[in-house]
Design goal:
about 600 residues, Rossmann fold, 3 domains, 7-stranded mixed sheet, 26 helices, binds thiamine diphosphate
């Protein structure tokens, strides 16, 4: 490789380059990111939008001594490449390569392991306070998108940062987009800032009014060789932040490297919280992504196989269909319309559709409010992001016993998105809540049947499924709370109880046994368990959820409590965070295989006779 990029092994190599050379490097990075993501899959639009920003930040700040935090972390590919992972980037989202999000296990330049939205300001404040307590002088920078800014956690941090003047630099990367078009009052406010001012040029605007500010004084004005007027207008247009005690600069063109470098140099080492507003274009430099940034937000890996049918599509389509005849239905998303399959619903029922921004807590509580007033809310949400709304599920939905349905998508082992995106805790964290019902379909037809049935179910309900399923089974017993479906009669003493389609996929390949679609994880089908399973039987439970608090433990507890002597073996995930990026390997490592079920049965053969 005879490129500039081939010479960049760390940010110190970057610092030797001229601004024109940095621009060339930006082009090379874009090309490299695009070519890799189109093959391996990953986040494309956001990464193309943040290339110049990344270069300017690493040019000015001194990571890893200075902490640079990437909110969500899905836009940190250029950062990874220039921070020592250029070659490994070819194996993006592979076990022998690198992950798609910042990871402290991967590099000292990744200040934190992250993947969920809106955390970076709180983390930065923690870093900043830690430095202050130790008497260290350093910069803590967090890069946060306008989408991530809609998360309540970000505002909690701002409120805290402003009150005591903590030293931190917030870079607001505003591209008007979350995954879809950004929503809400905050996003409108950013738009106003953008439109009212046009781009601020550092030389002409920023430097000028600095001495008017109580924080700065003449010293900095002299140091920067500044004069006064224009900066005042920058300040005036950002009252919200200023009144919170956070100095605002911007908006700046986030693709103008020279200007960005000047801005970052100016704010580096300042005391107190500072917000630099930069405007970028999602998908920048790759025409298809610029035109349709949502489509290229997350790109699937190139594959020869036809895509598997999607539970998300079934969920969105079914919801749209039942809402035609049921005016009480409302649908809610926390900025994940496309991912959760809600597009057809949105098209047909836009007045009963609410995109609340990246605000899962608010979505769950707001759903409770709608339910209390007689509506039938469906909150479609990824399992991993629903974790954030735990107290709202418990306090607002369950204690108030409200008929909110959670369509829990991307449940189970996550694969390429990695450790922060695993959906392997939901069966545990949902089924331990009183009054919550939890079910999990074996295929698309069953998901459709469950959603149709849920219209007449007036209590908290979670329907949990991964992204895709293998194929339709071709049959589906009527859905009834707490009733399972026998997939294959056994006639012997071995019973395999499966929670969800992935568990069934495994069990189907196992030997002679009764195979049960345990479609309700809560309540269990106690009638089946007590009437069909004889003493001395072998019961194998299978689930792609952690063992602790999961389906299998509930079945074991049932037999213990009933005093029935059966041998129960729980196949589930170990009590550890899953770093492996390959779903098949995770299943194998945890014994979730047909082979393992066969061995278990073989070992028990003698005692079963
Ligand atoms: C708590 C949580 N909810 C949802 C997501 C899924 N998600 C990943 S990126 C993203 C959009 C972020 O938008 P923004 O911060 O503006 O960054 P951009 O992609 O526009 O650069 C969303 C909703 C998440 N990572 N975390």
């Amino acid at each position: 490789m005879d490129s500039l990029l081939s010479k960049i092994d760390s940010p110190s190599d970057l610092k030797k380059l001229s601004v024109p050379a940095l621009r060339v490097l930006a082009g090379e990075l874009r090309e490299y990111i695009t070519q890799t993501v189109l093959v391996n899959g990953g986040h494309l639009s956001s990464n193309l939008g943040s290339v110049e920003l990344t270069l300017a930040l690493h040019y000015v700040f001194d990571a890893p001594r200075d902490d640079v935090l990437w909110d969500v972390g899905h836009q940190a590919y250029a950062h990874k490449i220039i921070c020592g992972r250029r070659e490994r980037f070819k194996r993006l989202r592979k076990n022998d390569g690198i992950t798609g999000f910042p990871s402290v296990k991967e590099s000292e330049y990744d200040a934190f392991t992250m993947g969920h939205s809106s955390t970076s300001l709180s983390l930065a404040l923690g870093f900043s306070r830690a430095a202050a307590l130790r008497g260290e002088r350093k910069n803590v920078v967090s890069v946060i998108g306008d989408g991530a800014f809609t998360g309540g956690l970000a505002f909690e941090a701002l409120n805290d940062a402003g009150q005591e003047g903590a030293k931190m630099i917030i870079v607001l990367n505003d591209n008007e987009m979350s995954i879809s078009k950004n929503v809400g009052g905050v996003s409108k406010y950013f738009e106003k800032l953008r439109l009212s001012r046009g781009y601020a040029k550092f030389k002409h605007n920023l430097k000028k009014g600095v001495s008017a500010l109580p924080f700065f004084g003449d010293k900095i004005v002299n140091a920067l060789d500044l004069s006064k007027d224009a900066f005042k207008t920058v300040i005036k247009s950002s009252r919200m932040f200023e009144q919170m005690g956070i100095r605002y600069y911007g908006p700046f063109d986030g693709h103008d490297i020279r200007n960005l470098i000047e801005v970052f140099r100016a704010v580096k080492d300042l005391d107190g919280p500072v917000l630099v507003h930069v405007v970028t274009k999602k998908g920048s430099g790759f025409a298809a992504a610029e035109i349709d940034p949502e489509r290229y937000h997350g790109v699937a890996p190139r594959s020869a196989a036809a895509p598997a049918p999607s539970f998300s599509d079934v969920a969105g389509q079914t919801l749209a269909d039942i809402a035609d005849a049921n005016p009480d239905i409302v649908a809610i998303t926390a900025a994940m319309c496309d991912g959760t399959g809600l597009n057809p619903y949105y098209v047909r029922h836009s007045t009963r559709y609410f995109d609340v921004g990246i605000a899962e807590q608010h979505a769950a509580a707001m759903a409770a409010g709608l339910a209390k007033k007689g509506f039938k809310p469906y909150f479609a949400v990824y399992s991993t992001f629903l974790q954030r709304a735990y107290d709202q599920i418990l306090h607002d939905v369950c204690i108030n016993k409200l008929p909110v349905t959670f369509l829990v998508d991307r449940a189970g082992v996550a694969g390429g998105d990695g450790v922060t995106h695993q959906g392997v805790f939901d069966l545990s964290y949902l089924s331990m809540l009183p009054d919550m019902t939890v079910c999990t379909p074996k295929d698309g037809a069953e998901l459709r049947a469950m959603i149709e049935w849920s219209q007449s179910f007036f209590a908290p309900l979670a329907i949990r499924y991964p992204k895709a399923y293998r194929a339709e089974y071709g049959f589906c017993a009527p859905v009834e709370s707490g009733k399972w479906e026998v997939i294959r009669e056994g006639g012997g003493k071995v019973f395999i109880l499966c929670a969800g389609n992935r568990a069934l996929d495994i069990a189907i390949g196992a030997a002679d046994a009764e195979i049960v679609n345990a479609r309700f994880v809560k309540p269990l089908d106690t009638e089946y368990l007590s009437s069909k399973i004889p003493r001395g039987a072998l019961v194998v439970t299978v689930e792609d959820n952690v063992k602790r608090g999961g389906f299998g433990e509930a079945v074991t507890a049932f037999f213990n409590d009933a005093g029935v002597a059966v041998k129960v073996r729980n196949l589930a995930l170990r009590d550890e965070f899953i770093e492996n990026l390959d779903i098949g390997e995770v299943f194998a490592q945890n014994g979730l295989t047909a082979e393992n079920i066969k061995n278990l049965i073989k070992k028990s053969e003698k005692s079963l006779k």
